[in-house]
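Standup notes, protein team

Yesterday: finished cleaning the Sinorhizobium fredii set.
Today: Lignin beta-ether hydrolase structure.
Blockers: none.

Input for Lignin beta-ether hydrolase:
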Amino acid sequence: MTRKLYALCGTDRTRPFSPHVWKTKLSLAHKGLGFDVAPIGFTEIPKLEQGATKIVPLLRDGEKLVSDSFDIALYLEEAYPERPTLFSGEGGKAMARFVEGWSQMTLHPAIGRIAIMDIHDSLEPVDRAYFRRSREERFGRPLETVAEAGKTDLETFSAKLEPLRHMLKFQPFIGGERPLFADYIVFGALQWARIVSPHRLLATGDVVSGWFERCLDLHDGLGRSVTAA
């Protein structure tokens, strides 16, 4: 059975950049499940699978369609219980929910401002127009003004990683000795930045950099299959 993962890309369809898609890519690899990537642009999302979703990732697994990276992870855990666990029990699910909230409320907004023009410039013209319109409506100001504010985010980003930095003093992964879905959540955010923007958010020698490098090496180097910007 061929699985299809719809993944958000820019002009270069070999460089999927969505943080949520990367969570799912590593989740599928963690489970040892093969899949094909179907690259799409922003404006193609409403047309997928007869309007099945407004967001990506969207996974087709046989007759099953699942969207939202966390829902996909829960589906994979239930559908393939004999394969390596993504959560290691209910506590792992609860931990992943907390990590997701921290990542999306703390890391994502900062990365979004830091990389906003890099994302815009990587898109096809039709997607650039959509991206500018939708993000300027969201922020209430021009993209260029958002990018200017992103300079402060770049200066303060390292401090946002302090909770992760503290945890990694005691264990190699958020999941403990081995990665779990919680690791893929944070990895997805930092991989997004790595792929779309030349700005480097992690300092050499930082314990978080070491963790990120270990995550890039997971599953036969899946994270390294797309080079840094």
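Follow-up from PR in the comments: The first strand starts at residue 3 and ends at 8.
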